[in-house]
Amino acid sequence: MYSSDDYNEGGYESYGDYEPHTGDPQYDLEFDRSSFYKMPDMVKKFLVYFRNMINEGVTYEILNLYENTFPKLTEQYFENTPWPDENEVAPVVDNDHVFMILYKELYYRDIYARVPGGPKPEQRFHSFYNYCDLFNYILSAETPVPLELPDQWLWELIDEFVYQFQSFAQYRSRTSKLSPAEIDALNTENKAWNVLCILNVLHSLVDKSNIKRQLEVSNVYAAGGDPDSVAGEFGRHSLYKMLGYFSLVGLLRLHSLLGDYYQAIKVLENIELHKKSQYSHVPACQISTSYYVGFAYMMMRRYADAIRTLSSALLYMQRTKQLFSSRSYQNDQINKQTEQMYHLLAICLVLHPQCVDESIQQVLREKNYHEKMFKMQYGDLGEFESCFTFACPKFLSPCPPPIEPGSNYGRDAVKHQTQVFMDEVRQQKMLPTIRSYLKLYTTLPLAKLAAFMSAARGGDRDAAREHAALAIHLLCFKHKMKNVVWTKGPSGLDGKFQSGSELDFYIDNDMIHIADTKVAHRFGDFFIRKLLKFEELNRKLHHIKI
């Protein structure tokens, strides 16, 4: 693991040394505050009580202070300024080492969330070293540490750790906006927020908790498997168990950001993605998991699995809207990921048409997704790229180059992944048109379909060339409609090749023979859902007093 001492050789401590008045209003405001600021008594009482509850391990009260009291005090006393720094807080809480680490985690997270323009370079470094202190405290202990935190905080801690790495990588890549002093600091502190360090922390938490073995055993609980039998001393402790599980989701996100989609799904082995479990009670974690799994499936051309994953998550969010409205910290992220998942679902349904839940279809029709899907179905490559750019994660380079003035690599990773996706789309550009013609016939001469396709292109190609191109497109149709689809098993990578097309065809003597593979439409399910909804509305009306 890593510690602050490992990085002092680069002059890390000197980054915080500033003259009293620099001419920068932000720095001067902080100097004035440090000179004249007095911490409100209410904040002091909160910090002492918060420290006491953490030391006593009262998780339900810690959750209340974390989710409700801290944001309220932020709004009341620190709307335009950050919370007091560690030098002001430490004497109030008797220099409690563990509490100060946790407080600084909240302090820097608040700066990342609220300070316009983002944190300053030394704040990014300080936050990294604070995470090093926290994870060293948890991982270096010979016995489980006496620390109990609510699962919501543990999830947001891991999520924020990966986010701050992502934010730092993006900040580092914007060389045109960096000053010479910032470039020197970044080149000197080249071990801070290194991708290998992030991977090391997450894998160490996974290994310490034995969470993979616990998940493997829990999948066979019906046969008598007991996760505690393989958890070990640390894995039985709630802190280590939940940090291990959330670290798996953090690895899913990190590998997706780096463009390694196979490994992203691989790390979730033994997590049954399509079932509820004891670990899926943190909504933000469940939504983030579904988003990155759905995206990874789409990039692996497993559209049926992507559609199932995204649809399931969107249905879950539709049914639990009230729950998300009460979550203030990650509410904006959840809303954005919801929009991103609808865009991903629209892309997948264009490339791989199939039936989805009626309530999802209704949202796609009522909002502007319907227009986007219409444009994509008619081969609008610009609309494909626009939807992908909005919906994709902000990709990162695993090996960023040394920073030099004038260099610019910030968008390279995004451009590369967009190019990979658009190459796939171009291969399928004509398939919706072919599908629309095939649906109209049971038999169709190959030459006639070639003439239709030539007319769709504007009639600028001769018959022989169009005939050859059509043969390629028909083979492409057969190939692209065959996907690996998950059916059962603990790994999301498991599956069998299945045809996802609602029609099939074969060619005999230049004649295309077409068959509808969909045996029956599921009108019954639709009417049953509407009847149940009508009955529910009727019951509610009876309870209303006029």
Automatic annotation (TrEMBL):
One of its GO terms (cellular component) is eukaryotic 43S preinitiation complex. One of its GO terms (molecular function) is translation initiation factor activity. The keyword Cytoplasm applies. Component of the eukaryotic translation initiation factor 3 (eIF-3) complex. Belongs to the eIF-3 subunit L family. Its main location: cytoplasm. Signal peptide: none annotated. Residues 309-521 form the PCI domain. PANTHER family: EUKARYOTIC TRANSLATION INITIATION FACTOR 3, EUKARYOTIC TRANSLATION INITIATION FACTOR 3 SUBUNIT L. It is found in: Cytoplasm. SUPFAM superfamilies: TPR-like. Residues 1-23 are annotated as: Disordered. This is Eukaryotic translation initiation factor 3 subunit L. Pfam families: Paf67. The keyword Protein biosynthesis applies. GO terms for biological process: formation of cytoplasmic translation initiation complex. Component of the eukaryotic translation initiation factor 3 (eIF-3) complex, which is involved in protein synthesis of a specialized repertoire of mRNAs and, together with other initiation factors, stimulates binding of mRNA and methionyl-tRNAi to the 40S ribosome. The eIF-3 complex specifically targets and initiates translation of a subset of mRNAs involved in cell proliferation. HAMAP family: eIF3l (MF_03011). InterPro entries: eIF3l, PCI_dom, TPR-like_helical_dom_sf. Keywords: Cytoplasm, Initiation factor, Protein biosynthesis.
